[in-house]
Amino acid sequence: MKPSLPRIVITGIGLTSPNGNSLKEYRANLLNGVSGVQAWEIRHVGKTLAGVCDFDALRWQKRKELRRGTRAGSISIYCAGEALADAGIDITTRDRARVGVYIGTTEHGNVETENQIHEVAQYDFDLSFWSHHHNPRTVANNPAGETALAFGITGPAYCIGAACAAGNLGLIHGMQMLQLGEVDLALGGGVSESIHTFGIFASFRSQGALATHEDPTKASRPFDKARNGIVVSEGGCLYALERLDDALKRGARIWGEVVGHCVNSDAADFVLPLAERQNECIRGALARARLAPDEIDIVSSHATATPLGDQQECEALRAVFGDAHKTRVNNTKSYIGHTMGAAGALELAGNLPSFDDGFVHPTINLDELDPTCEVRNLVAGKPVRAERIDHVLNLSFGMLGINSAVVIRRYRA
Asked: How far apart are CA 342 and CA 193, in angstroms?
């Protein structure tokens, strides 16, 4: 008989999103239908749309650190500081060798590389103008490394590259390291700096997958018949994760317990999703959580507002939850766009307050449902009050066929 693993709980949430820089503000805007998408202009691409964050970077950093570091690092440091504060943890009183930082990212370093090339191009590619900060800015572990530097964390700190499933993977990895006894406190989640690189906009535009709309706040429209692509956004969300016994010992507030997860791969295509593998990922998370589909109260969908992506996900959802009468489905990208590596972590955070307030936030910008995206109990337009919410399933899928699912349960003794 296998020994039981320790229970892992969320005790702190720190985030910045295009429509809120704290969980309280973010949640209020989700319930009130407030979008964070705005007009944006970037070199070589011109005018476009994006989800832009406006957090106070100097809250947890000094100006010198901002100049030396990266946007992704700054987002990570802000989210880590807010998560620790929310958890009531003074990091200076902890054994910082027993703290781990696990940050999911889509990509890192493109912003800095593009900026450096642009800068030296102004000087006929005289590389004496190339910054000596370039290498530490662009290594794949940068966001986690900057976070460790900022808080004096000497435990394991690294990034997890998992495309747009990365936010879930950071949380899952933190949970696993706690269960293995490698750390006593984990900061896990995801970040994205994507709006500062023209390459991602150019690539999505060349694929015909970049959203357009005369009203920026209505550009991100998952499931809608008129959806026409992704709104690229920045943001971040990190969770303070602890073993349940440790959290109870210090009287911590518990946002929820991580009870199920699954990660798999389509092994089918570079960008096109596969409903069959998504179905298997969802069922794998439910099996680990020992839950039937109708025991899930909220499914936080991944849908990015691309025609085929939304259709494939809805096919998977119908296959799993077709007979689940109380399971409600919502979407957060309709408010903030696609925050890439941060998406899974941010979208989960927006639903966790449902355990307390009983509301399911809606999908916005859903004016005419695409028949291929019809799923039971899709919440749209206005929040829905549920009798009780005990389980949230958070879905995130990414390029090269990576799928992830996480189940969070209302804490119970």
From this structure: 9
Q: What is the pLDDT of residues 29-38, one digit of tens each?
A: 999 999 999 9
Determine whether 302 is an active site residue: yes
Structure tokens at 18: 């295009």
The residue annotated as part of the active site, out of 302, 314, 373, 391, is 302
pLDDT tens digits along 282-321: 999 999 999 999 999 999 999 999 999 999 999 999 999 9
Q: Residue 368 phi/psi, 5° resolution? A: -140, 110
| 338 labelled catalytic | yes
* Token pair recorded at residue 41: 């202009």
**Active site annotation includes 213:** no
The single residue of 196, 338, 361, 391 carrying the catalytic annotation is: 338
Active-site residue identified among 53, 79, 164, 314: 164
| Counts of helices then strands in the chain (DSSP H, E) | 14, 14
CA dihedral 95, 98, 101, 102 (to 10 degrees): -160
CA distance 126 to 42: 24
pLDDT digits (tens, 9 = 90+) for 103-146: 999 988 999 999 999 999 999 999 999 999 999 999 999 999 99
CA distances from 329 to 145, 357, 386, 388 (A): 36, 17, 12, 15
Query: C-alpha distances in angstroms, 187 versus 76, 210, 233, 237, 388?
Result: 10, 32, 22, 10, 29
Domains located in the chain, CATH noted: 8-249 (3.40.47.10), 260-409 (3.40.47.10)
The structure tokens 């507002």 sit at 305
